[in-house]
Amino acid sequence: MTLGLPEHLARESLSRALARAGQCAAAVCLAAALVLTIASAVAASAPTGEGPDRQRAALAATVLLSVQALLLYLVARYETVTLTVMALVGGTAAVFGLTVLLLASGDVDSAADNALVALSRAALVLVGGAGIGSGIAITWAVLGWGLGEAAAFLGATVIGAPWAPSLPALAVLTIVIIARTFDAAARRAVDRRETALHRASQQTRELTIRHDYELRAIARLHDTALSHLISIATAGSGAVDERLRSAIRSDLSLIVGRDWAGDHTEAHGDGLPPRTGAAVPSAASPSSRTPADGAAAVGPGPAFRASPPPLAEALGIARDAGVAVHVAGSPAALETLAPARRDALEAAVAQCLINVVRHAGVDEAEVAVDPGDGEVTVVVIDGGAGFDPDAVPDDRIGLRTSIRGRIEQEGGTARIWSRPGVGTTVVLTVPDGAR
């Protein structure tokens, strides 16, 4: 039972509730004992009473029980070790005094099961005290029972009367031990469940991290190998251009490294320039126009720049393959994205353009960048061969991993419309700003 609270708060609340219940029971015992004492004092003061000696004994018993009740209240109010010890000492003195008073009066031969002494000893067992937990509670109860037995034995010894253990006090101690033992067993079961839940939660997080890492690794390997293969194919026969060699060597140094699946914003090795050095040209830039048609066919400059941004690299590959890419909208909106989110979006767009080069069979495509409503949307359109998205096999990772997987990892969406013979439209949307 958790009372609707978190497990760690519920355990503490239940432990304190048990302690409060015991202290309330002790207060009831002392109240009943005081009622008996007051009734005895009233009976002694009646005309048919037995004189002032009985009145003085009743008054002394009332004082002892009142002191014990006051100390019980202080323990319940402040719950300190000092007050707990004082309550146990005061209760012990009360049991000793009550035992001596009863045995000295000659009314009883043994104070073991006398109602007045039994109630005081039961309250001593139920004092509770500082700290929470079943072990501490049982320790205080056993200590109270032991001190009560010692006080009764000492009082009987002083008077010279026989001593016997109190069955009511022993019964109260047994109840406390059973209740607290059950509470401890239930708490251990909860702890085991919490440990299992924590372990399952940790495993889930590890699986999520591993899945994300594998997704990035597969996408990076797929894009790197595919882009270089297309570059080599479009380079024609003969020796491979040295700039292409440098780009392949740079990517190879990333792939064989320890962090090859991570996000790399700078090139590694050979003194290569930073990856972010190649900007995405806008449709209005002079370098983006070709003399042939005057359209905004975008190219990133040199065909094989060392570690350029993925979009700029894809634009260069498309241009070298004879596909003119027309950029519209606001390409500068990509600069508002967090670096990791921008890399993911550019890499997904690059994969779309590579697919155009490989499968569309056209010589031009369009890329439109549209910021607004807290999002940045990039649309890639071609009027080529098209395909049926539902017929793409599950083992093809271009759409599933390099495009959809990347965008969804950044909290975005990827929508694809295509039909055989009518071309393909891909709409990629990610939240703008930092994550």
CATH architecture of the largest domain: 2-Layer Sandwich
Mean pLDDT across the residues is 75
Terminus-to-terminus distance: 40 Å
The portion of residues assigned to helices is: 55-70%
Query: Tell me, what is the CATH class of the largest domain?
Result: Alpha Beta
Q: Main sheet? A: 5 strands, mixed
**SSE class:** alpha+beta
The number of distinct structural domains comes to 2
CATH topology of the largest domain: Heat Shock Protein 90
Morphology call: rod-shaped
DSSP strand count:
5
- Spans of at least 5 consecutive residues whose pLDDT stays below 50 are 263-307
Helix-strand pattern: HHHHHHHHEHEEHEE
Report the sheet-strand fraction: 5-15%
What's the name of the CATH homologous superfamily of the largest domain?
A: Histidine kinase-like ATPase, C-terminal domain
From the alpha-carbon coordinates, what is the Rg to the nearest angstrom?
Answer: 43 Å
